[in-house]
Amino acid sequence: MGRKPLDIEKLVLDLIISDDINLKKSLAKKIQDLAYKKGVYPSSIHSLYMARGKGEFSGFTVPAINLRSMTYDLAKAIFRVAKRNNSGAFIFEIAKSEMGYTAQPPIEYAAVILAAAIKEGYIGPVFIQGDHFQANAKKFQENQDKEIEGIKALIQESIEAGFYNIDIDSSTLVDLSKTDINKQQYFNYEVCAKLTQFIRQIQPAGIEVSVGGEIGEVGSKNSTPEDLRAFMLGFKDRLRKGRTGISKISVQTGTSHGGVVLPDGTVAQVKLDFETLKTLSKIAREEFGLSGAVQHGASTLPAEAFHKFPEVDTAEVHLATEFQNMIYESRHFPAELKKKIYEWLKVNAASEKKDGETEEQFFYKTRKKALGPFKKEIMGLSKEVRDAIAAEIEQKFEFLFKQLNNVNNKELVDKYVILKRVIIRKRKEGKQVVHDGEGAD
Length: 441
What we know:
The protein has helices spanning 8-17, 21-37, 46-53, 71-84, 96-101, 106-120, 137-142, 144-161, 181-202, 225-238, 274-288, 308-311, 321-329, 335-348, 359-366, 375-379, 383-403, 410-416; strands at 40-43, 62-66, 91-95, 124-134, 165-169, 210-214, 248-251, 293-295, 316-319, 420-426, 433-439. With 441 residues, the chain is of the alpha/beta class. It has a single domain (8-439), classed as TIM Barrel (Alpha-Beta Barrel), CATH 3.20.20.70. The strands form 2 sheets. Strands 2-3-4-5-6-7-8-9 form an 8-stranded parallel beta barrel, surrounded by 6 helices. Helix 1 (8-17) packs antiparallel against helix 2. The radius of gyration is 21 Å and the shape is globular.
């Protein structure tokens, strides 16, 4: 008698529910091994982006989607949309902050995404990204080395889990009190170069991790061509000769994470500066060989805005809050669970309530913080309920893929992205991890 096949759904639920990190690692390894056997490879989008920077193709924008809750269900929905639209260029990402408040460490997030690909019969490269691996300005001022070492530790943990795309966000260190633009950007490009070099030192053999930089913190002043050039010239000067640099640059053009919440709990309409986005993308490609500019905080934009991203040659757009909102606002999400979450927020997030803020604004702003504490209850909802919520959000994914013209590019992705199997081995002399890349059969 043969071996009983692995029950991927049970593996995923056990992985998500477990609080034991060693058990999580064991289950994640089973999923990753099965993924390779099924032709599913965690991959870097670097080579595709470099080809775009050389002008070898254009015309679509890559969606980078943050899944804060129901990750397995929503990832399956994304893979279904990708298969229907013959798309290969899409990224699953999670920010440093989100890992904390959603209780999704890198090892879990990556494995859940791969499991979703297996379940939906998706074959080929899967791009998993660390979003906003961010330097805290206050902590950086207090102890620069300690803050950088903390980010390095997260980078190493993430790469070992299969995150072969990392967005470094040292834009928090931009000092607008300086009059000289180079001095404003100094710590930004200095730290970004240091962390890029670290990534190059630890990345798996045969895999060039895609690294992104950022010149304007989302929610602050709009980025300018001068900001971009000051950052890139400083970054290139600081990067060790022979090292591969970044493949894209995140800019600020008028959005804010989660949107601006009005007193009734709805989100204010945002006027995004597409002309600035177009200009910065053009400079990034033509002067620095990057894939182009990246737009953050876009999921709550009006529907009619999305088709403009490919029109102005935006390389990548980040989408997060709207999918979280759709889970909470779904008619299928149990009213009693939502009430329980809001009661929990009144107690556990009370310090975040500002004077003059309505209850609707408070709940909208803080409810993401409940996704970790209530992760098991949300994933404990019946499959029928989770499927119904995911079906609603799948329609949104379908709309976004088409608006971004992210269709019929699977063959293009397969042309540029070489599949590598990564084997993680421990060195005898210490805890350092060595990655070996093997070509796909």
